[in-house]
Write a structure and sequence with these properties.
- The complex is a heterodimer.
- Chain A has six helices and eleven strands.
- By secondary structure, chain A is an alpha/beta fold.
- In chain A, α6 links the parallel β7 and β8.
- Chain B has four domains: 156 residues, Alpha-Beta Plaits, CATH 3.30.70; 55 residues, MutS, DNA mismatch repair protein, domain I; 113 residues, 2-Layer Sandwich (Dna Ligase, domain 1); 83 residues.
- In chain B, 28% of the residues lie in helices and 28% in strands.
- Chain B contains 14 helices and 22 strands.
- Chain B is extended, with a radius of gyration of 34 Å.
- β6 of chain A pairs antiparallel with β14 of chain B, so a sheet runs across the interface.
Chain lengths: 209, 515
């Protein structure tokens, strides 16, 4: 590319805010919150979890829901006086309060909600995201079957933006959401975290926590 | 008889026991008692009067099952003429007067009626006390001048109770106990000073104490027919022979010992009604009307520094029984927007059987706004959060929303708890040893190969063992008396597991994930 072309391109990029370079992650900078894991922070676009948005975590069968990537963010949340809601967490597992306290999470700020059907579950997720008092929503949206679709993800994203809330969806690998509009999609196995998709980035880094 | 320690209750009564001055009674008269005067209202026929369709001029008795027999406890005047007395058996009453109407005692109705009358009597004094089963006590010493003297109060109260259809006996005395003793026996007595109270009590028969029949008979056999005779006895001998309670009661009646008279507090509740201009079934319009009612409720609660934990909305229909919506609040409060939002949530899900012509909002429990009503929520964003939680509870049921707690117990099964928000406790100091984020509700047996546990293949030990051994006192259920060695292990995918070897039952178990 000639110098003059580069110059005119640069001029255009600077003059027109609706144009950006795809490889430049900061071009679509959104507010982030630190993950509490230094290596993960550098790997994620923007340098942390989105301040408000949706993350999908794909969970393999016979694997517990991987919470450890989110524990520091949860601790920050309750320290700031914000609430954390768990919607339809696996029934055979108990959130073991002493361990959560060890991680710095104040159990007073935690609430478990169990829904009876899919519609109510998704409604609870949306209202929790929209509530300004709530900082983090951890949800298992596929408990009552049915994959998450684009429309549901869109509703939750709008709600999360309105409530300045981060939503984390745990979906089994065979029921991965058909929702390309998610902020982040992660796959966690043991201490190995793979970014499957990140808005504002083409890279799919693998991080060891 | 030891006369040296005798206290003479009758030192003012002429010639009773001359020349024997005992030491002062145990409690000095307080200044507060200086002006106290108690009016007792003894409702003689209350068990009859609360019966539906009671007519004073019809023969009627109220019965109660006592032990093996059905006993008559209240008799109308006409039935009394026929010879029926309280204490007779039901069969005897029917034999004496075949056309007598028999009713079973309704104690709940009696106590409701007493409470209602207590509320009514509050116009005469600020201190009304309910004395079950059938008396009210009014402190009139403070208000006597306001209402034109004791006789005037007594007359007005009698007239008022007569208007309510009650037959009543009254007595005024210096103590509540003396007044309640005097009323059944000396109706209309006004013993407005200590002397006259003492004289009135002394003249009462021994039955006025309301003792069990056997003890009453014992006193009678000893020649003690009046309270005056009792009062002439030395205190310690009386206490020894007939019990300390009699001495205490006499002291209270004669104002020589302070008595505890509970104050009646009217139960606080709120109701408000609104009529719809025309029959209506659209939720938004019903909600708008309900909004007027919650507005009134909030103003009432502000004025009384109170909150409510439950709302009841009655929906009236034409020619149909009213529908009722009961709305529980996650935490007592008085926020108007919250009430309306909750009512809306419930109305949305309620199928109206017919159009609504009127609404009534009731708050059955009005609570003082204090600790426990706003606890687990801090003020910032609390309303919004509370409203959200209540909407979940409204739609999913109260059991669907749970809070997490912890206990200071080393046994994993006992260290956590789930409960209603605001009702779980948290122990502030978690154990120092590693604990898994997820605990399995039931430990899962692991397959052992070559004496090593496996899960997705062989496991690598990371840390351990940590011995948890405790709870010999607690034998009920699992996780009571345990003896285990816990290890942190890693499976081939890198997932960290909490695994224990049971020292009692042997074998390896998976108990949690560190994920």
């Amino acid at each position: 590319m000639s110098d003059s072309a580069t110059n005119s391109l640069n001029a255009l990029l600077q003059a027109e805010p609706r144009l950006w370079r795809a490889r430049d992650a900061r071009a679509r900078q959104t507010a982030v919150r630190p993950t509490g894991h230094a290596r993960l922070d550098t790997a994620l676009p923007g340098g942390g979890w989105p301040e408000a948005g949706m993350i999908e975590v794909v969970v393999e069968a016979r694997q517990p829901p991987p919470l450890h990537p989110f524990l520091p963010a949860m601790a920050d949340c309750t320290r700031a006086g914000q609430r954390i809601v768990l919607v339809d967490a696996p029934a055979d597992l108990v959130p073991f309060t002493p361990a959560w306290q060890q991680a710095g999470i104040n159990p007073d700020g935690l609430l478990l909600v169990r829904s009876d059907d899919r519609a109510n579950a998704w409604w609870v997720i949306e209202t929790a995201l929209r509530s300004e008092a709530c900082g983090l929503v951890l949800a298992w949206p596929c408990t009552h079957g049915r994959q998450v679709d684009v429309a549901a993800m869109r509703r939750w994203q709008v709600a999360a933006a309105a409530g300045r809330c981060l939503g984390v969806l745990f979906t089994p690998a065979r029921r991965r959401a058909h929702a390309p509009n998610v902020h982040l999609r992660l796959h966690v196995q043991g201490d190995r975290l793979r970014v499957l998709k990140a808005r504002g980035s083409h890279q799919c880094p693998v991080v060891s926590l | 008889m030891n006369t040296a320690t005798q206290i003479d209750w009758l030192d003012h009564e002429c010639g009773a026991v001359p020349g024997k001055q005992g030491p002062e009674p145990p409690v000095a008269r307080s200044a507060a008692r200086a002006e106290a005067l108690w009016l007792c209202l003894y409702l003689t026929d209350l068990p009859l009067e609360v019966q539906a369709g009671y007519e004073p001029d019809e023969p009627m008795v109220v019965t109660e099952v006592t032990g093996q027999r059905i006993e008559v406890i209240a008799v109308s005047a006409v039935a009394r003429h026929a010879g029926i007395e309280p204490g007779m058996s039901q069969a005897a009453a029917q034999a004496l007067c075949p056309e007598v109407r028999l009713e079973v005692r309704d104690q709940a109705a009696e106590s409701r009626r007493l409470d209602r009358l207590a509320g009514w009597a509050s116009r005469w004094t600020s201190w009304v006390s309910v004395a079950p089963p059938n008396s009210l006590l009014l402190e009139v010493g403070g208000s006597r001048h306001l209402f034109g003297g004791l006789d005037e109060i007594q007359r007005a109260v009698m007239a008022g109770l007569g208007g309510h259809g009650h037959h009543v006996r009254t007595a005024i005395a210096r103590s509540a106990r003396a007044a309640s003793w005097l009323a059944p026996w000396q109706s209309g007595i006004v013993a407005s000073d200590d002397d006259r109270t003492r004289q009135g009590v002394a003249a009462l028969p021994i039955e006025a104490l309301g003792l069990p029949p056997t003890r009453q008979a014992r006193l009678r056999r000893a020649g003690l027919n009046t309270l005056g005779a009792l009062m002439r006895l030395p205190r310690d001998g009386l206490a020894r022979r007939y019990g300390q309670a009699i001495v205490r009661q006499l002291d209270e009646a004669l104002g020589q010992r302070p008595e505890a008279v509970p104050r009646f507090a009217a139960p606080r509740r709120f109701t408000a009604e609104v009529d719809m201009p025309m029959p209506e079934s659209a939720t938004p319009r019903l909600l708008a009307a309900a909004g007027h009612l919650t507005d009134q409720l909030v103003r009432y609660l502000r004025a009384h520094d109170a909150a409510v934990d439950r709302l009841r909305l009655r929906l009236f229909h034409e020619e149909r029984p009213a529908s009722t919506l009961t709305v529980g609040l996650a935490m007592a409060g008085r926020d108007d927007r919250r009430f309306v939002r909750l009512l809306g949530e419930h109305l949305d899900r309620f199928e109206l059987p017919a159009p609504v012509v009127g609404l009534r909002l009731e708050a059955p429990h009005v609570l003082p706004l204090s600790a426990g009503t706003q606890d687990w929520l801090d003020p910032a964003g609390a309303d919004d959060w509370l409203a959200t939680v209540e909407r979940w509870q409204a739609r999913l049921g109260a059991q669907a929303v749970l809070a997490l707690g912890s206990r200071a117990d080393h046994r994993p099964e006992q260290a956590w708890q789930l409960g209603q928000p605001g009702q779980v406790d948290c122990c502030d100091r978690p154990p120092a040893a590693p604990r898994p984020v997820w605990l399995l509700r039931e430990p899962q047996a692991l397959i052992v190969r070559e004496q090593r546990p496996t899960y997705n293949g062989p496991l690598d030990t990371e840390t351990g063992p940590e011995r948890i051994e405790q709870g010999w006192w607690d034998t009920a259920g699992s996780g009571g008396d345990i003896s285990r060695d816990y290890y942190v292990m890693r499976d081939r995918f890198g997932t960290r597991l909490w695994v224990f070897q049971d020292r009692q039952r042997l074998g390896w178990w998976l108990h949690g994930y560190f994920a």
